[in-house]
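JOB MANIFEST
job_type = single_chain_structure
chain_count = 1
residues = 309
[input]
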Amino acid sequence: MKPTRQGYVEGLLEAGETDERVVVVDGDVSRSTGTIAFKEKFPDRFFNLGIAEQNMAEYSAGLALEGFIPFYSTYAVFAAGRAWEQIRTSICNMGLNVRIGGAHGGTSVGPDGATHQALEDIAIMRVLPGMTVLVPADSNQTRQAVLASLNIDGPVYIRYGRNPVAEIYHREDTVVPGRGRVLRQGKHASVMAVGTMVSAALQAAEILSGEGIEVSVADMVSVKPLDVQLIKYLQDISGIIVTAEDHQIAGGLFGAVSEYTSENRPCRVIPVGVADSFGCSGTPEEVMAYCGLTSDRIVEKVKRALEEG
């Protein structure tokens, strides 16, 4: 098990080696996010602006206008929340090639409490025109998300966490915007998950299989653009979809999938996520349990949906 931030840093170091345009803009949290490793290797391409996230966004916009590829990296709750207007107006409105690394996304900062647990960032970034939103499931996929972002035209938001998560992917498994991946096939229902909840979805599938219920599990790493072909494929197998995310139910993966299905191919979409509340202080595991972000909750939602028909 490795934290996804390790993959983010590995991706940054590789990107820095292959492309001299890659720079990192930091908000005085480089030890916490891991980007200090980039500073040590490329000191002339690392800029610490202090605790000034709005300035970081504007500075990154200026670097992008000069031909650089800046990775604006800080806690997700501050990157997405505190500098939203600057990201909207100075980065997205001009379609600039800024990559935003949202560190410690979701409940992974457990002991830091609700103020530092970004549970709204996917929704905040997804609503912005032209923004690509990637939510990788493990360290290897996070590394690949960073590398994939180098070939994306326009702004990119990459959400990653702090606590160790199970490794699902090999290092060579690529990330493609607009593409998810089916990790398990099943005929009774489908679970679409992102981030740390992909591992929980796979665990839930094992539990359900032991009870004779076979579910598909899909990693929807690209929340925007959304893999609508994958949604159609899973709808053809089963008319029940459960979404799972370490995020508010409103506006995240559940919102994205529901928006597509309601307009194009209506079906039941049932959420597992944070139900209109803030987090709390505790270990990541305790906070996830408190918020209902567990494999058991996924099992419960699948079984209830099948019972209701």
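[summary]
The longest helix spans residues 4-18.
Residues 30 and 193 are 29 Å apart (CA to CA).
exit_status = 0
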